[in-house]
Design brief:
By secondary structure, this protein is mainly α. It contains 2 helices and no strands.
Length: 63
Amino acid sequence: MIIEHRDSFDVKKWMGMALGFKGKILGLFPFGPKMVQKTAMGGLEQFLQKRNLGPGDFPNGRD
């Protein structure tokens, strides 16, 4: 059983691969990666809300 998993990656590099030239340019500025993170968190929150899930529904109880 997997209790906890942490992963990391280079957001700037990912932006360049996923979004091409525009992603590479946006990755040069602090607001670029923050914008990607905000969008991803919004998608995760929508996913959890649709399924009526919250922090107590996960083994480690994190927000």
